[in-house]
Amino acid sequence: MEKEKRYLRIYEQVKEDIIKGTYPVGTKLPSKRVMADAMGMSVITVEHAYELLSDEGYIVPKQKSGYYVSFDDSDIYTGVESVAPIAPRRREPAPEQSVSNEPVFSYSIYAKTVRKVLAEFEEYLMQKSPKNGMFELRSAIAWYLLRSRRLKVSPDQIIIGAGAEYLYGLIVQTFGRDVLYGVESPSYQKIAKVYSAGGARLKMLRLGNDGIESDELWNSNVQILHITPYRSFPSGVTASASKKREYLRWSRKNGGYIIEDDFESEFTPSRKPEETIFSLDEEGRVIYVNTFTRTIGSYARCAYMVLPENLIGEFADKTGFYECPVPTLDQLVIASLIDSGDFERHINKVRRYNRNK
């Protein structure tokens, strides 16, 4: 555990230096040995930290040369992604659309949890869920996001739904059908279909090596941007650290909002979870969406949406009359899996499998 904390400390310090401009784009970082001597740590510890920075697109390795800063947070789009050569951040397609040998969630643990919830909550299970979901589940999700993703949110910001598609529908009803929604091209076909079925106007935005092409993004007139920053299907493209901040600059300058579809990023093979755009947002312009159908299984037809505080009232006014479609029993079972630690143990097991693979 202490070793893990050490390489995370190096990761955080170097990342902060890169963001502040101490290491400008194109700069070569100190070698692993030089950094290890300066920090009083082992070379392998520095190597782990550099791997994390490379995974998230802050730096790129050059064979027999070292690591170079690829993060570019310039305010003005110049048409050049970076002075450092960036290899495409592509990975295999998401297991929902392909065959996978990843460990599945334990049936015995799930069955045991269902029996435990039935015994503990008894007639409470017969109560109708609040419209935004059971407090027990929303509270468990809030604590989980704080522990695992460094997202500090309250249960009031969370809305429970029967799958991400249901939540997309609430988004359209809140923002309306007159605004233009931008969707990655290519992307998981169901995303565009759900928005279109809800009457939304769509514009498909071309993906590049690390996210939506800058000219596509800035020259479009979209107002709501739906993105899958981690392993967008079917391309496998993952947004770099620079691209994530470019999305936020776009939202600020254009008064737009971002729907961050975080499907399956918890199963990253990296030694730490992927950095979310929601965690970088300081102006309340990102809506975070995730689902348990990937982390637990397709039988757990439950997803959640985290709203910025400034949108809670608007969502309540526009969609607050809808009943929560997820049964109380299912919500309390998932809450219990999170609170017991079984949920995170499963995620860590899959991440170790992916890392070893």
Task: Explain what this protein looks like in three dimensions.
By secondary structure, this protein is α/β, with parallel strands linked by helices. It folds into 2 domains: 2-69, Arc Repressor Mutant, subunit A (Orthogonal Bundle), CATH 1.10.10.10; 107-356, Type I PLP-dependent aspartate aminotransferase-like (Major domain) (Aspartate Aminotransferase, domain 2, 3-Layer(aba) Sandwich), CATH 3.40.640. The chain has helices at 2-20, 32-39, 43-55, 107-121, 135-149, 164-175, 189-197, 214-219, 241-254, 277-280, 292-295, 312-319, 328-340, 342-356; strands spanning 59-62, 66-69, 158-161, 180-185, 201-206, 224-227, 257-261, 286-291, 303-306. The strands form 2 sheets. A 7-stranded mixed beta sheet has the order 3-9-8-7-6-4-5, sandwiched between helices. Strands 1-2 form a two-stranded antiparallel ribbon. The longest helix is centred in the N-terminal third of the chain and has 19 residues, at 2-20. 41% of the residues are buried.
Q: What would a concise description of this structure say?
A:
By secondary structure, the chain is α/β, with parallel strands linked by helices.
Descriptors:
357 residues, alpha/beta, Arc Repressor Mutant, subunit A, Aspartate Aminotransferase, domain 2, seven-stranded mixed beta sheet, two-stranded antiparallel ribbon, 12% strand
